[in-house]
From TrEMBL:
Provenance organism: Gordonia aquimaris
Gene Ontology MF term list: 4 iron, 4 sulfur cluster binding; metal ion binding; molybdopterin cofactor binding; oxidoreductase activity
The keyword Lipoprotein appears for this protein: no
InterPro entries attached to this UniProt entry: Asp_de-COase-like_dom_sf (IPR009010), MoPterin_dinucl-bd_dom (IPR006657), Mopterin_OxRdtase (IPR006656), Mopterin_OxRdtase_4Fe-4S_dom (IPR006963), Prok_molybdopt-oxidoreductase (IPR050123)
Cellular component GO terms held in the UniProt record: membrane
SMART domains per UniProt: Molybdop_Fe4S4
Keywords: 4Fe-4S, Iron, Iron-sulfur, Metal-binding, Oxidoreductase
Domain 4Fe-4S Mo/W bis-MGD-type as annotated: residue spans: 2-59
Protein name: Molybdopterin-dependent oxidoreductase
PANTHER family linked: NADPH-FE(3+) OXIDOREDUCTASE SUBUNIT ALPHA (PTHR43105:SF9), RESPIRATORY NITRATE REDUCTASE (PTHR43105)
Taxonomic placement: Bacteria, Bacillati, Actinomycetota, Actinomycetes, Mycobacteriales
Amino acid sequence: MGRTALRICPLCEATCGLTVTVDDDGRLRSARGDADDVFSHGYICPKGASLPELDNDADRLSRPLIRRDGALVETDWAQALQAVVDRVGTIRAAHGATAVGVYLGNPTAHTVAGALHAPMLARTLGTTNIFSASTLDQMPKQIALGYLFGNPFAFCVPDLDRTDHLVIIGANPVVSNGSVTTAADFPGKLTALRKRGGHLTVIDPARTRTAKLADTHIAPRPGTDAALLFAVVHTLFDEDLVAVDLGGIAPYVSGVETLGEQARDFAPERVADHCGVSATEIRDLARGIAAAPSAAVYGRMGTTTVEFGTITSWLIDAVNILTGNLDRPGGVMFPTPPTAPAPRPPRPGRPFRTGRWRSRVSGHPEVAGELPAAALAEELDSPGDGRIRALITIGGNPVLSAPDGDRLSRALEAADLVVCVDPYLNETTRHADVILPPPPPSRSPHFDFLLNNLAVHATARYSPPVLPTDDGRPGESEILCRLILGFSGASTDADPAMVDEQVIAATLGKEVTDPHSPVAGRDVAELVAMLPDAPGHERRLDMMLRLGAYGDAFGARDDGITLADVLAAPHGIDLGPMRPRLPGVLRTESGTVELAADDLVADVERLRTALDRAPQGLVLIGRRNLRSNNSWMHNLTALSGGSNRCTLHVHPDDANRLGLDDIAVVRGPGGEVTVPVELSADILPGVVSLPHGWGHDLAGTRLSVAAAAPGANVNQLNDGSRMDPLSGTVTLNGLPVEIAPV
Ligand SMILES: Nc1nc2c(c(=O)[nH]1)N[C@H]1C(S)=C(S)[C@@H](COP(=O)(O)OP(=O)(O)OC[C@H]3O[C@@H](n4cnc5c(=O)[nH]c(N)nc54)[C@H](O)[C@@H]3O)O[C@H]1N2
Ligand SMILES: Nc1nc2c(c(=O)[nH]1)N[C@H]1C(S)=C(S)[C@@H](COP(=O)(O)OP(=O)(O)OC[C@H]3O[C@@H](n4cnc5c(=O)[nH]c(N)nc54)[C@H](O)[C@@H]3O)O[C@H]1N2
Ligand code: SF4
Ligand SMILES: [Mo]
């Protein structure tokens, strides 16, 4: 028998709506795409289809674990939470707030608790030692947004459904399903673009599945996109291709001339050898973007986790701006998510800056409130005042995902306290003193607070838990709220709803005094009384929706939405395509898009110097597989084996030259790994690729399927010393390596 239910997939940024079947015994049996979902229209990928297996995985932890006499043993929730609060309290009292570090991993971008409660937990601890997967990922993009628009969260995304020319740089969305751009069925959107006569350009040193769909594939040497994009900017000025009036936004843009001056040294003919791309290809690229009725340049991992990540991210949007493609349909636009506050008059902000504090050991500047993940190990293991003595991880596996996991493992082993909010006993959490496992997706609510900010089409969709949690087992929000209460001196037994009620009171208190708020001048108690009798996260969600751009303004707007409306539309509410948002989104001091911020311009000299550097030998890049998800989904039989393997892709010419056979040793600045070789004519000679997230052969984990085909940890090759200095983002793509036969 069983029944069906709807659940938004939490496994990647595409946020597909799924229809799941639930057995009478309360387990998920199958998942398929929800054809009526207003955002994803039935799309699903192999990972989404494996959601039931993930949900039912016998290796998932259901009870907290605590370390006693060296071994992790089950305990009850009250004891586990109290132990964490007591021990964190002791460490803070003895060594201060910074002695406690926090690492937030990728799933915190996909969970309700990650959006609403993890940042509060970090703030409650009052520590400056905050780390996240962002500095292994998209931070350069955010820093560029900070300088350009005054807000590192003012994401602009390609208008995939309407563009005439899409330029994808260093991304493989046919496999990754898209990132920092939320679009379900990215492959279908690329096919639709070509069907409507549009043009797809892909810039990638590998002929990926995305590149194979392209009209034009440009294959630069890894790490050289900054120079290539400067050459595009150069061409736009040189050939008089800068859009008249910047497509209508010129009144809101400053720094055009300075940018043109900076590009002067980067003629296509000058950078061609450095990039491994001919000057003609570069000029044609610039001409193609300028000539298209609309165009959108989009970059991902291959443009951020590189030596010049911030410059590259900056220039991507510079090209969008110069060609008149910012903030217009078919170009790149700022999404309006349903929980973003209703538009207010533009207000200038303070200058965007990084480095408000610095890391203790290497002096890395703070960026967007955090320090580089690559510096986590040294902050734990370098003696001296201010050392991190306790680390709390929430949904992260930095032992595999960050550089030099061996060093991080040793550092975690030596730490006074490690606490992990995580469903698995894996390479990182095996070092925990306490593991607090959240319930599986079927028993958790889902709303994309973060990813809606990146969505190419606005919708409001909410999945309540499909199944109830087992008696007494807290949801992830409750786990974090109880810790927040404990850390702020209250009892972990206190009502966790208090945490959300405080946020509600504070938010509404501010809103009613803001003359531009849709609830200006109203009574807070009256507004609070209008929220539903529901769990804290639903009350906050209702509040945010009602205050939001599409909201009912607490009854003041007849056609506005509330959570009740969203609940009444289980396939979601369609809120339409992206709309122009300039100048309202700008928070720069000048109130303009600052195209040539001083800090960005100052970094250009580093790039000029790199142009004359002797070419590196072999360089390593990453690759993703459709049936994989970073480090934590190798424990599912449905996703293991086959093409999803941890092999080294090598061009046949390189393999011949190096005398490679089946197995090779790869040496990098941080160490070496031994891996199977797979010949591939799709990768540029001189470039090799290895996927990340492997290396499941470490002792003390409980990952029975993953351990049977462990693969090797690519990040052991990386010592974390190479990074984009403006963003603290480590060079994961373009790492120099040496390779030898075994
Ligand atoms: N199936 C699957 N999907 C995923 C994930 C997963 O592990 N598996 N992970 C998710 C996460 S956390 C993220 S952040 C996204 C990432 O999403 P994407 O960025 O789309 O994924 P990647 O495969 O890392 O793509 C990076 C591309 O950059 C290319 N590249 C490397 N170096 C350079 C360079 O110097 N220049 C240029 N131009 N290109 C370069 C690589 O060949 C690769 O094709 O995927 C998400 N989706
Ligand atoms: N060489 C190389 N390294 C890379 C990358 C690369 O391309 N190349 N990609 C980088 C990128 S883009 C990213 S985002 C990082 C990812 O880095 P991390 O976020 O550190 O690692 P993940 O592998 O995503 O691990 C996710 C963790 O969350 C846990 N988890 C799963 N579901 C939940 C949940 O609902 N709640 C909680 N609390 N925990 C949960 C899992 O058990 C796992 O421990 O890796 C980075 N590392
Ligand atoms: S594309 Fe992403 S969101 Fe969609 S089903 Fe696959 S993993 Fe889930
Ligand atoms: Mo990521």
